[in-house]
Design goal:
Butyryl-CoA Dehydrogenase, subunit A, domain 3, alpha+beta, binds flavin-adenine dinucleotide
Length: 414
């Protein structure tokens, strides 16, 4: 429908993703929601078989060498399935980003390739029981001892804690009070067999079946060659990682909002009240219009951010702002769009007869994980004030366009 945004190769890839989505059995979605499946390993293997993983990564490691725009186009399709399956599709992209951008050739050979071909299942561990937003306050430690780092601590809410076999773990490698907090952290590739315990699977409101749990590290021995980048580079890598984390949250939820709208709009054409299809009441059809506008606005800003990442590597401030705006707008507006679809359905929308109640439960998470809306606002305002200071965006001194602009006695600021 919006293929005019995409090149020919991306349209083909998107169509392949759409066919893949059609092939997923409904029972998988139901079993995941009922917590009967904690981690759908075969789904990830099938994604790899269909060459849908590693969209942005180099061909020499099995990737497709395409763009952020291409990845978002695929993710919207996959997002139709559920937030959990969208997230599991995205984790190879998130974890792969750290290895691709900062890893050694050996790490790319050993891990990136295996991730893209569906031989290793990955998870990212940032959040700790003591907090997620205040990332640099992490307390998990990695202490160097000969050829190993010894990891101790805990991570919370990790998707893939159950099921994944390779974890990307942030840990403190310095507690020197003279070292800035963002330089006290390093990033490690930790294999489950190195001694990682997964403790607990939460009773989640939605987005079930992705293996979300707690990770415990008790004297876990990680070879020194498994550090990504260098000691203390974790903060810098974290900044880069926020692109895939937040872009995938924005891209995935587009699919779910689109799916719920389709269900609700079809229902509204069939359901009769007061002798007419309910779609003939403005109170209903305007909800469909609002839901669609929210979806299209989310899609527009998400693709704009994707294009910025593809073409604006020299302007990280702009990329950070647009990615944060896309994450906030898409997750909040798509949630609101799903809520409108639910309202259009009336009482039956609140039952398991239609899938919208599940989408509603799933979607609530999106503005919380991978950085809350409040944290997105912190970044958005920070980057905008920085841009203003550099005076990049003003074409003329707009303030002087006011009739009384030179009443300087009135322009008192304190
Ligand atoms: C199902 C699920 C899956 C998840 N998957 C993963 C995963 O795979 N890996 C991972 O590492 N984490 C994961 N998370 C964790 C998620 O990213 C965090 O929950 C999130 O970042 C918020 O952190 P917190 O829960 O510790 O809340 P807190 O950081 O304690 O925040 C609580 C509230 O305070 C607000 N707040 C905090 N600081 C500020 C501030 N400076 N200004 C304004 N408001 C502020 C927050 O916005 C929030 O509303 C997952 C969470 C869930 C529920």
């Amino acid at each position: 429908m919006y293929n005019f945004l995409l090149d020919k190769d991306t349209i083909e890839l998107k169509n392949r993703a759409r066919e893949f989505v059609k092939s997923i059995p409904r029972q998988l979605l139901i079993d995941m929601d009922e917590d009967k499946i904690q981690y759908p390993t075969d789904y990830i293997k099938d994604l790899a078989k269909n060459k849908l993983l590693g969209v942005r990564f180099p061909k020499e490691y099995g990737g497709l060498g395409m763009s952020w725009v291409s990845e978002i186009a695929v993710l919207e399709e996959i997002g139709v399935l559920s937030l959990a399956l969208g997230c599991l599709y995205s984790l190879p992209s998130i974890v792969g980003e750290a290895i691709n951008e900062f890893g050694t050739d050996k790490q790319k050979d050993k891990y990136l390739r295996d991730i893209i071909i569906g031989k290793r299942f990955v998870a990212e561990a940032l959040t700790e029981p003591r907090g997620g937003s205040d990332f640099f306050g992490a307390t998990t430690t990695a202490v160097k001892d000969g050829n190993y780092y010894i990891l101790n601590g805990q991570k919370r809410f990790v998707v893939g804690a159950e099921g994944a076999d390779l974890f990307l773990v942030y840990a403190k490698t310095s507690d020197d009070p003279n070292t800035p907090r963002n330089k006290q952290i390093s990033l490690f590739l930790v294999e489950r067999e190195m001694g990682v315990e997964s403790k607990y699977v939460y009773g989640l409101m939605g987005t079930r079946g992705g293996g979300a749990g707690r990770l415990v590290f008790k004297d876990v021995k990680v070879p020194v060659e498994n550090i990504i980048g260098y000691e203390g580079q974790g903060g810098e890598i974290f900044n880069q990682m926020m692109y895939p984390e937040r872009m995938t949250s924005a891209g995935g939820i587009l699919g779910m909002a689109r799916a719920s709208l389709e269900v609700a709009a079809k229902y509204s054409s069939k359901r009769i009240a007061f002798g007419r299809p309910i779609s003939k009441f403005q109170g209903v059809s305007f909800k469909i219009a609002d839901a669609l506008t929210k979806l299209d606005a989310s899609r527009a800003i998400t693709f704009m951010a994707a294009k910025a990442l593809d073409e604006n590597h020299d302007n990280p401030g702009l990329c950070r702002r647009l990615v944060s705006e896309a994450k906030r707008v898409a997750t909040e507006e798509c949630y609101s769009s799903i809520d409108l679809s639910l309202q259009v359905m009336g009482g039956i929308g609140y039952t398991t007869v239609y899938p919208i109640e599940k989408m509603f439960r799933d979607a609530r998470l999106a503005s919380i994980w991978t950085g809350t809306s409040e944290i997105m606002n912190l970044i958005i305002q920070h980057e905008y004030y920085s841009e203003l200071k550099l005076n990049k965006n003003t074409s003329r001194d707009i303030e002087l366009d006011a009739k009384a602009a030179f009443e300087n006695d009135e322009k008192i600021y304190q």
